[in-house]
Write a structure and sequence with these properties.
Length: 182
């Protein structure tokens, strides 16, 4: 069993996800294209692109849309763009993602939400929120690991494929690395 990391983080507020997650994996703003524009503005141009602050603060976001908000503000904080505000937004977003993450657990870790679960752990884990970096969480992620060392989705205890799912493998590796380095 892995040792629980010692981390420094503020406790997240307890928030309930007031919706069924599987019915809204991409709701609110930004859209995928808008998210790409906002992220590229930060990463390539070193700017906050027009309209991004409003889009990235949409309180109706959920699922992958909320996750992309978390990625945006994580990058913004690391690049030192209005770091205090970015940290406040990360805290708000991770609180909502924690509610979603717990809902995914209660639902029995369904196949359709495994990727989202792992991505939430990676994003909020890199921001040092201990609620995402638990032994139970790591065991859930490791349950997706194949005998080849990569990761694939599972359904009812069985792998859907012996093939590696590259995206899931890279995000799972990031989530576990975050756990180990915390």
């Amino acid at each position: 069993m892995m040792k629980k990391p010692q981390i420094k983080s503020l406790p997240l507020p307890t928030v309930q996800a007031p919706y069924e997650l599987e019915n809204g994996l991409e709701e609110g703003s930004p859209t995928r294209a808008e998210s790409d524009t906002c992220l590229l503005g930060l990463l390539i141009d070193g700017i906050v692109a027009d309209g991004c602050e409003t889009l990235e603060r949409d309180s109706k976001a959920r699922g992958y849309t909320l996750l992309h908000q978390g990625i945006y503000f994580t990058i913004k904080a690391h690049l030192k763009f209005d770091e205090v505000t970015a940290q406040e937004e990360i805290r708000r977003i991770c609180a909502q993602m924690l509610a979603e993450n717990r809902q995914i657990r209660r639902m029995g870790f369904p196949t359709t939400l495994q990727d989202l679960f792992v991505e939430q752990v990676a994003v909020c884990g890199v921001n040092k929120f201990g609620e995402f970096l638990t032994d139970g969480t790591v065991r859930m992620i490791q349950s997706l690991q194949t005998s080849r060392g990569c990761f694939a989705l599972i359904e009812k205890g069985k792998r859907l494929s012996i093939d590696c799912y590259n995206h899931l493998s890279s995000v799972a590796a990031a989530a576990i690395a975050t756990f180990l380095s915390a």
